[in-house]
Design goal:
With about 325 residues, this protein is mainly alpha-helical. The protein has a single domain (about 20-314), classed as Na+/H+ antiporter like fold (Up-down Bundle), CATH 1.20.1530. The chain contains twelve helices and no strands. It has helices spanning about 5-35, 40-65, 70-100, 105-115, 120-155, 165-175, 175-190, 195-220, 230-255, 260-270, 275-285, 290-314. Helix 1 (about 5-35) packs across helix 5 and helix 10 runs antiparallel to helix 12. The radius of gyration is 19 Å and the shape is globular. The relative contact order is 0.17.
Length: about 325
């Protein structure tokens, strides 16, 4: 009898986590089934991804950052903790590369599997669990982390002979997610007034982004390559979904971060890698088949690991 209350509390927490995650998993599964059974054409999915990447998701980031109550002083330690985790993981991978002589085509895949994150799943999950306050914190972290992980990913995929600063800078300046984060933060910081009609217009775009983004995540899943590289995939997935969140929790504890910031940072580092990693890998001549397998396997495993990580930190 003495243990009944803690067990009941734990059961309620897990039930709440499952209820928050189920719609996300269901949308991803729906996207996969729609694509598998050709409910929509390949052209539809290509158009949907383009619409979301260039219009809807940037609108969501702009809307969130332009209206968020940003207190950078209270978030400064969380930002430092985030940077430490990203740079520590990147440095560790470069050390491994020195010993194992991994070519850029595959090294870039491993780096992206560790440092990139699925923003659709992250924002949808944090919004479901922590509402607007959590969403604002995550959006600020995204605004700072998106440019950083893009630079790290491009450098990891590029050989020394082809490395040049100008193309990397141009690619960053053209990235719609980076641009929307920068403009949204500037509007907020300078307190630039926005006409209410335009605000509502942007919000309508914003609410469409996450459902469509999760459907596209499901449609992009590919499982044919998993059997060929199962050991590599298992190592990358374990590190990304469990080891890196544990490192993030240790760093947050070391800095003494508040509970909400700790939870959001740990969830942030427990997300599977970004679906857009496949496009970047293909464009830069990396091992795109391995990247597709990593994305698919991590997304599949995250359906199990994310509830466990959230329950652990709560």
């Amino acid at each position: 009898m003495p243990n009944s209350k803690p067990q009941q509390h734990s059961s309620k927490e897990m039930n709440s986590i499952v209820l928050s995650l189920f719609p996300l998993v269901a949308l991803i599964a729906s996207g996969y089934l729609f694509k598998k059974y050709r409910f929509f054409s390949d052209e539809f999915w290509a158009g949907a991804e383009k619409l979301n990447y260039y219009i809807l998701f940037p609108a969501l980031l702009f809307s969130t950052l332009s209206t968020a109550k940003i207190d950078l002083q209270s978030l400064s330690t969380a930002i430092i903790a985030m940077l430490i985790v990203v740079l520590a993981v990147t440095a560790f991978l470069y050390i491994l590369r020195m010993f194992w002589h991994i070519p850029p085509a595959r090294f870039g895949v491993h780096v992206q599997s560790m440092v990139r994150f699925n923003t659709y799943i992250g924002l949808a999950l944090v919004t479901s669990l922590f509402k607007s306050e959590g969403m604002a914190i995550l959006a600020i972290l995204l605004a700072l982390c998106i440019p950083l992980v893009n630079v790290i990913s491009v450098l990891a995929l590029t050989s020394k002979e082809h490395m040049a600063i100008k193309p990397i800078l141009i690619a960053l300046l053209k990235n719609p997610l980076i641009v929307s984060c920068a403009v949204g933060a500037a509007v907020n910081a300078l307190q630039i007034p926005i006409w209410e009609g335009f605000t509502q217009f942007i919000k309508l775009f914003s609410v469409s982004s996450l459902p469509l983004g999760l459907l596209c995540v499901g449609a992009a899943l590919q499982f044919m390559q998993i059997k060929k590289d199962i050991v590599v995939l298992a190592a990358d997935t374990f590190a990304r979904l469990l080891a890196v969140p544990a490192l993030a929790y240790a760093v947050c504890t070391w800095f003494g971060l508040p509970s909400l910031q700790t939870q959001i940072l740990v969830i942030f580092f427990a997300l599977p890698t970004a679906s857009a990693s496949y496009i970047l890998t293909k464009v830069l001549g990396g091992d795109s088949q391995l990247m597709a397998a990593v994305i698919s396997f991590q997304t599949l495993c995250a359906a199990v690991t994310l509830p466990l990580v959230i329950w652990w930190i709560s």
